[in-house]
Design goal:
By secondary structure, this protein is of the alpha+beta class. The protein has helices at residues 36-50, 52-71, 106-139, 144-157, 162-173, 177-204, 207-214, 219-256, 267-274, 283-310, 316-321, 366-374, 399-405; strands spanning 328-337, 340-350, 381-389, 392-393. The longest helix is centred in the middle third of the chain and has 38 residues, at 219-256. The chain is elongated, with a radius of gyration of 29 Å.
């Protein structure tokens, strides 16, 4: 009897003592007790906050989010208020960061540009994630022709520069946020698929995925339940890099005139309007350049810190939180098949975390005991006595109650456990 994790415990393994789970076992999130998702989020956040670089990333990104929300309703000066007599003015009480070449308040434009850049980053991450996962599904498909052709296509398309894609899109669309999002999402999705493919392929060809497919699982369910959880650390890093690069791409494409259209506030717009006179009025370039640098560095660090925080191997607190206390108490269990008593007066208590091996010759009743714990005795069998699983009486329980326990908290693997158990 084994209590090794909430996703397949307790379980009965015939004829051998169950070893301690290996150090690289990752616990399934679906087995968390009620409120576990919120508790896991708190653990991840706390783990990130404990690290100096994580604290820096969280402060910068939280400030960005807050400023973006505030800028929707308030800026110190109207964006359309200009003063031709105070162009390129130095910072003052009226204009905290000075003015630009039209006499507009630099601070107000940077404040308003925060929500434009935030929107671009969010849309780019969504597009690149969706496009990348679609490519990953094709690259690890069971169809060999589809998988190999997808790899060739990705390798060919990834050589196309993002700027070239943006220039092509700008012909029919003009300068637009859509150009930035599509160009960046397309290019970064290709890179995501190429980087994540080895890990995804390893998961797709694993024994537990083969077992899931043999049991009728669809390709979509395999992707969501088995492949994506295995590549989450890679996704966290690559999507954070995509977010940071999207901020830089917005600045570069807007400078080229194919990004954010004129009149729409953005950090790239502020850079584009002031960089021409950088030698004369350097401060107007320093402010947007400093903001872009801080945000890009914070986004890149955020991905690295998040990768470690969401990985139960690197974060023991998350692994422990994912455990649900389970125990089994069997008293006076009798099992009869066709009126013949084959298991008689079994008493067994297994505490949370305890591992017990049932050893016996073939036909001694080990499998029948495990099936009784699962409520999966054959129709010709009858059981009496008591099987208490963490307060739930198994004997006589309804199928609805048993179905809620099976697979989520209890399971039996009679042969070849490596082919049945997903480590994540």
């Amino acid at each position: 009897m084994s209590k090794s994790s909430t996703s397949f415990s307790p379980s009965v393994v015939e004829g051998e003592r169950v070893p301690n789970p290996p150090a690289d076992v990752r616990w399934r999130r679906t087995a968390m007790p009620e409120g576990g998702q919120r508790a896991a989020f708190a653990i991840v956040l706390h783990s990130m906050w404990r690290r100096a670089e994580g604290k820096f990333a969280l402060i910068v990104l939280a400030s960005w989010l807050l400023i973006a929300i505030v800028s929707l309703f308030w800026t110190p000066q109207s964006l359309w208020t200009t003063d031709g007599y105070r162009v390129w003015a130095k910072p003052s009480a009226a204009h905290w960061l000075g003015t630009d070449g039209t006499g507009a308040d630099v601070f107000s434009w940077l404040l308003a540009g925060s929500h434009t850049n935030l929107l671009i980053v969010l849309l780019t991450v969504v597009v690149s994630a969706a496009w990348g996962l679609l490519l990953i599904a094709a690259m690890v498909a069971r169809n060999a022709a589809l998988a190999s052709s997808s790899v060739v296509v990705v390798d060919a398309l990834i050589s196309i520069p993002t700027v070239l894609i943006a220039l092509i899109l700008a012909v029919p669309l003009g300068a637009s946020i859509v150009v930035i999002v599509i160009a960046c999402g397309f290019g970064y999705g290709l890179n995501l698929a190429r980087v994540a493919r080895p890990v995804a392929l390893l998961a797709a060809r694993s024994s537990y995925v083969e077992s899931a497919l043999a049991n009728g699982a669809s390709g979509w369910r395999v992707l969501v339940s088995h492949i994506v959880p295995n590549i989450l650390p890679v996704l966290a890093v690559q999507l954070s890099l995509s977010a940071g690069t999207a901020v830089l791409a917005e600045s570069g494409l807007t400078y080229l005139g194919i990004g954010v259209p004129s009149g729409v506030p953005s950090w790239g717009h502020s850079l584009a309007t002031s960089v021409k006179l950088i030698n004369v009025f350097p401060l107007t370039v320093v402010w947007p350049g400093l903001i872009v640098t801080l945000v890009v560095v914070a986004l890149n660090i955020f991905g690295d810190v998040l990768r470690d925080a969401i990985d139960p191997v690197a974060n023991p607190a998350l692994r422990e939180q994912g455990r649900a206390a389970m125990s089994v108490d069997i008293h006076g269990l009798n099992i009869a098949v066709g009126g013949r008593l084959i298991v008689s007066d079994v008493d067994l208590a297994i505490a949370d975390g305890e591992r017990v091996g049932l050893i016996g010759s073939s036909g001694s009743g080990k499998s029948m005991i495990s099936k009784a714990i699962l409520g999966l005795l054959p129709l010709t069998a009858a059981a009496d006595g008591s099987i208490d699983m963490s307060g739930t009486e198994i004997i006589g329980a309804s199928e609805h109650v048993l179905a809620d326990l099976r697979g989520r908290y209890v399971g039996a693997v009679f042969q070849n456990p490596a082919a049945s158990l997903n480590p994540v």
